[in-house]
Design goal:
The chain is 63% helix and 11% strand. With 299 residues, the chain is α+β, with helices and mostly antiparallel strands. The chain has 2 domains: 195 residues, Cation efflux protein transmembrane domain (Alpha-lytic protease prodomain-like, Up-down Bundle); 76 residues, 2-Layer Sandwich (Alpha-Beta Plaits), CATH 3.30.70.1350. Strands 1-4-3-2 form a 4-stranded mixed sheet, covered by helices on one side. A hairpin with a 5-residue loop joins strand 2 and strand 3. It is elongated, with a radius of gyration of 25 Å.
Length: 299
C-alpha cells in the first residue's frame, strides 16, 4: 500500500491578494452609508434607510471577508494543520446571516409605514440614491474579474445595490409626480426581495462548503473519467472531495491498481496530481491498493 500526500506548502491565497480591493470598497461604502442614513432620516424615506441598511450589511460582509483573507494567509500550526483558510467559507456564511438580519429590519419598517405613513421628500431621495448608483457600481467594478467566492459575492451584492438605488430614484420620481407616499414603503419591501434572491444562492453554496460538500466548481464525473483514463487503475473508491477554502479544494481516494514498481507508482501519482490541479483540486491524498492483494478490513 502506498500513500501520496500533496501538502503544497506555498501559502498563496488568491483572496489575500484582493485585500486592497476590500479595503477600498469598505471605505467608499462606509462614507456612503453614513450619508444615506442621515438623509434617509432627514427626508423621512424608509427606502433610503432600507438601502442604507443593505449597504451597511455589505460593508460588514466585506470587513468579515477581509478578516478571513488575513486569517487565510497565516501559516498552519500544530493544532490547525490545514491553516486558517476555511475562515473564508465562514465569512461567506456570515455575509448571508448579516443580509438576512438586514431583510428583517427593513421589512418590518417598510410594512409598518403602510399603516403609519411618513412623508418622504422625493428630491432628497433622488439625489442620494443617484449617488448610491455611482458608489455601488464603482465598488462592483472593483470585483468584476475576481472568481473567489467572497469577491464574487461582493460583486453581486454591490451590483444589486446599484439596481436597488435606481429603484429608489424611481420611487422618488413617482412620489414627486403623484404624491403617493406608499410608493416609498413598497420600494423598501422590494429591496427585501432583491436581497433575499441575491443571497439565497450564496447561502446554499456557503452551507455546502461548510458541510464539506463537493464544491460547485468540481465535476465528479470529470474526476472519475480522468482516473479511468489510466489503464493501470482498475477501480477508484472512497472518493472524498471538499473545500479547504473558497479557492482551494482537497481530494482523498483509494485506487486499485495493477502490480507496479515503486518508480511506476510514483510516476502515476505525479500525473494524477497534475491532472487534478487542472480540475481545481489543489491538495491530493491517494492510497494505492494492489489488485492482486486479498481484501482486508482496513482497505
Amino acid at each position: 500500500m502506498s500513500h501520496s500526500h500533496d501538502h503544497n506548502h506555498s501559502h498563496h491565497h488568491p483572496g489575500h491578494g484582493q485585500s486592497h480591493l476590500f479595503v477600498l470598497g469598505i471605505l467608499l461604502n462606509t462614507v456612503f452609508v453614513a450619508v444615506e442614513f442621515f438623509f434617509g432620516v432627514y427626508s423621512g424615506s424608509v427606502s433610503l434607510i432600507a438601502d442604507a441598511w443593505h449597504n451597511l450589511g455589505d460593508v460588514a460582509g466585506m470587513a468579515v471577508s477581509l478578516l478571513a483573507f488575513r486569517m487565510a494567509s497565516r501559516k498552519p500550526t500544530a493544532k490547525f494543520t490545514y491553516g486558517f483558510s476555511k475562515g473564508t467559507i465562514l465569512a461567506s456564511l456570515a455575509n448571508c446571516v448579516l443580509l438576512f438580519i438586514a431583510v428583517g429590519s427593513i421589512g418590518y419598517e417598510a410594512f409598518d409605514r403602510f399603516f403609519h405613513p411618513v412623508h418622504a421628500e422625493p428630491w432628497t431621495m433622488g439625489w442620494v440614491a443617484t449617488l448610491g448608483i455611482v458608489i455601488n457600481a464603482a465598488t462592483a467594478m472593483l470585483f468584476f474579474r475576481q472568481k473567489e467566492l467572497n469577491s464574487r459575492a461582493a460583486y453581486l451584492h454591490m451590483l444589486a445595490d446599484a439596481l436597488v438605488s435606481a429603484g429608489v430614484v424611481l420611487a422618488g420620481v413617482l412620489i414627486f409626480l403623484t404624491g403617493w407616499q406608499w410608493v416609498d414603503s413598497l420600494a423598501g419591501l422590494l429591496i427585501c426581495v432583491v436581497i433575499l434572491r441575491g443571497t439565497w444562492q450564496l447561502l446554499k453554496q456557503s452551507l455546502t462548503l461548510s458541510m464539506d460538500g463537493v464544491p460547485d466548481s468540481i465535476n465528479m464525473e470529470a474526476v472519475k473519467n480522468t482516473v479511468n483514463s489510466y489503464p493501470q487503475i482498475k477501480d477508484i473508491h472512497h472518493v472524498h472531495i471538499w473545500a479547504m477554502s473558497t479557492t482551494r479544494n482537497a481530494l482523498t481516494a483509494h485506487l486499485t491498481v495493477i502490480p507496479m514498481t515503486d518508480q511506476e507508482t510514483g510516476e502515476l501519482k505525479r500525473k494524477l496530481k497534475h491532472d487534478f490541479r487542472h480540475l481545481n483540486i489543489h491538495h491530493t491524498t491517494l492510497e494505492l491498493e494492489n489488485s492482486h492483494a486479498q481484501d482486508c478490513d482496513t482497505c
